[in-house]
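Reminder to self: tokens first, then the designed residues, so the page reads top to bottom the way the pipeline ran.
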């Protein structure tokens, strides 16, 4: 099991918030904060762009830490990823990711 695969199947190693954290790249934090603010219609500051990885101990973005419904569900079920959940194929929360990201679904199916 790859540690940097998020509960939803996204690859944290390709996430710009993770990359900015690992490389301590403030310019990338500024870029990501601007993009995510526009995309989500909320103010996201560069200081919020810090994440070790969804399933890795350490810092998380505010969304990933406390607001992501997929992560909160997986934590409550004490599963390694959504690939270990019996409801994976019918989960509306997970479909928000896997419906737009075939790679995430493939990673989950390969992991479970």
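Designed residues (112 positions):
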């Amino acid at each position: 099991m790859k540690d940097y695969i998020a509960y939803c199947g996204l690859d944290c190693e390709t996430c710009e918030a993770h990359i900015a954290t690992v490389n301590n790249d403030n310019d990338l934090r500024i870029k990501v904060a601007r993009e995510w603010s526009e995309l989500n219609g909320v103010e996201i500051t560069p200081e919020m762009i810090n994440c070790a990885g969804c399933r890795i101990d350490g810092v998380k973005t505010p969304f990933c830490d406390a607001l992501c419904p997929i992560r909160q569900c997986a934590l409550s079920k004490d599963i390694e990823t959504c690939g270990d959940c019996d409801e994976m194929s019918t989960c509306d929360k997970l479909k928000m990711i896997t419906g737009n990201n075939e790679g995430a679904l493939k990673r989950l199916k390969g992991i479970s």
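The chain has one domain: 12-111.
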